[in-house]
Amino acid sequence: MLTGWQRPGVPLADSLATALREAVLDGRFRVGDRLPSERSLAAQLGVSRGTVVAALARLRSEGWLTTRAGSASTVRLPSRLGERYAPASLDRADPVDLRHAVPAAPREIYTAAAQRALGRSARLLLESGEPDAGLPELRELVAARHTAEDLPTRPDQILITSGARAAMTLLITHLAPRRAVVENPAFHGTLALLRRSGARMSPVRVSASGWDPGQLARAFGEAAGHLACLIPDFHNPTGALMDRETRRMIAGLAEAHRVTVISDETMRDLDLRDTPSPEPRIPGSVLVGSMSKSVWGGLRTGWIRAPAALIRELLLDPMSGVCAPPPMEQLLACELFPHLDALLNRRRAELRTQRDHLAARLREHEEWTFTLPEGGLTLWLHTRTDTLVKRAAQAGLDLLPGPAFSPDGTLTHWLRLPYTAPPATLDRAVGRLTSCAT
């Protein structure tokens, strides 16, 4: 399991500790496995017992091992690693890959929910498991959450999907717009779906100060009878939060021009203000939600909230079955829902700390400017050079450049920088970015 673990120029105890950590993270050692005795390990690896003792002591102090007097060491995951927002790969990856703003699963909460779901799966497993609108229990939970946020919702207004992208895919495929209002910048995944559909795009400028009202009016006029895809809550990538006046304006424009507004709410729960306060939704909009940013990207569970008539239409679309999540995944989501608010409180605190840490490090330099967002997962960075992302990649830092978020290939002096990594990794990222900007 540990072949080739020794690294030139690195003390043996350090190399051994690193190799054992990697073996746990790669699944070669399972959580709960017992290691051989110190004497046996030393003999198998061909090193002194003192080297093994030093390596295991380090892992024990970091929370990777537990040892009872007179017994072997048992493998575990440190609680800080099992419950934090950042994926473990961000600690050790080289190059540092910040192209994705995604969380790791909250291990203890997730594992307990999975065990509870399995324990009450008997009735579910007796059914066909064929795709439909979603488990009634999950539709009720999602509807109740919307109702609690002053948007009365019935379960028949909810369609469960395998994530937000599946929801957007189903809606865009079904509605088949010839024209679509989009933000500039916009989430690159939505732009890709619209391009694939053949829709022409009418962009609206978004900055930290909000949505350009003149461009909104013009774009909705151009897209009359078709579609608008917006992220009003902690917009990806800028982090902007749409004010109530703009939301009312969009509702009026949508009604006047018969435009269907899809509000992507993937970031809505990631409100990093000291006292989170959800804004009212855009009246009449179709809502797309997901648990991918609040819980885990691997939990492929999202939803569409829309008029019941549209939900019935979507269920008749052949893509509906393709975009539906497995029933067991939905049952797991049901078990996680009651713990969602407590989990969000912890994750917001962690993200707030990481956002502020990254902002402080960036403000030590004059090469870029940004506005601190009130929520979401990323900073939208303005740079002096349009080659910074390419140079950063050569220095071991992978980022997404501004044009990836632009419907027309502009925004060449911008880049998205997530703060989902732990502070030490953010420090590495800023160091490499700084070396490329000077």
From TrEMBL:
Source organism of this protein record: Nonomuraea typhae
CDD domains: AAT_like, WHTH_GntR
SMART domains: HTH_GNTR
PANTHER family named in the record: HTH-TYPE TRANSCRIPTIONAL REGULATORY PROTEIN GABR (PTHR46577:SF1)
InterPro entries (alphabetical): Aminotransferase_I/II_large (IPR004839), HTH_trans_reg/aminotransferase (IPR051446), PyrdxlP-dep_Trfase (IPR015424), PyrdxlP-dep_Trfase_major (IPR015421), Tscrpt_reg_HTH_GntR (IPR000524), WH-like_DNA-bd_sf (IPR036388), WH_DNA-bd_sf (IPR036390)
Domain HTH gntR-type: 10-78
This protein's name: PLP-dependent aminotransferase family protein
Family label: In the C-terminal section; belongs to the class-I pyridoxal-phosphate-dependent aminotransferase family.
Pfam families for this protein: Aminotran_1_2 (PF00155), GntR (PF00392)
Keyword terms, alphabetized: Aminotransferase, DNA-binding, Pyridoxal phosphate, Transcription, Transcription regulation, Transferase
Cross-referenced Gene3D superfamilies: Type I PLP-dependent aspartate aminotransferase-like (Major domain), Winged helix-like DNA-binding domain superfamily/Winged helix DNA-binding domain
A GO molecular-function annotation: transaminase activity
Taxonomy, superkingdom: Bacteria
